[in-house]
Design goal:
Keywords: Signal
Number of helices: 4
CATH superfamily: Mog1/PsbP, alpha/beta/alpha sandwich
Protein name: DUF1795 domain-containing protein
Order of helices and strands: HEEEEEEHHEEEEHE
CATH architecture: 3-Layer(aba) Sandwich
Length: 185
């Protein structure tokens, strides 16, 4: 990858450092939270992003930010959603990648993005497991890793030229609910 997505790396730091997104981040008008959903984890909410074309369960209304960077000389907008509770943090990032970059093939794009994100953690990885996954027939990678800071699970999906990144740091049942609830709209 010619240039890393530094804004996405900053987003990952939100999970690692639990620094949160600044309170001044304004909600985007194209997103909504369903009213009174019945979810497995008490208090979790169904969150949908119309522009992002996804829905997911989160423990709280996510804070949102937008950033941009470049890949292969082309501007890439990053859309970040961060939710946390006492048990952990949950991050979703999506970005539409340049066609010139995705022409490398889904396996290469997912591997490169995964490597960049893992390196950005800046933590010593004690144990790491990686496996191929899919979402509605779209390729993905899942990384489960243990660092001194705790256990993290990261999933990347490539849906045509859109990359979705999900990261959870929490108890296993919370991470599983977060990841398994992610659906494309």
């Amino acid at each position: 990858m010619k240039r890393t997505i530094t804004a996405a790396i900053t987003a990952v730091a939100l999970i690692v450092g639990f620094s949160g997104i600044p309170a001044t981040a304004a909600p985007l008008p194209s997103n909504r939270v369903a009213s009174a959903p019945l979810l497995a984890q008490a208090g979790w909410q169904q969150f949908s992003s119309t522009n992002g074309k996804f829905q997911v369960q989160l423990p709280s209304q996510p804070q949102q930010e937008q950033a941009s960077d470049e890949i292969e000389g082309q501007k890439v907008d990053l859309h970040q959603f961060f939710s946390r509770n006492d048990a952990g943090g949950y991050l979703i990032v999506y970005a539409d990648l340049p066609n010139s970059y995705t022409q490398k093939g889904s396996a290469t794009v997912l591997e490169e993005m995964g490597s960049v994100m893992l390196m950005s953690m800046g933590a010593e990885v004690l144990e790491q497991r990686k496996q191929n996954i899919s979402l509605s027939g779209n390729p993905g990678l899942e990384y489960r890793y243990e660092a001194a800071e705790g256990v993290f699970v990261m999933r990347l999906y490539l849906v045509r030229s859109r990359m979705y990144l999900l990261i959870g740091e929490s108890e296993a049942n919370n991470i599983n609910q977060f990841l398994s609830s992610f659906q494309l709209l």
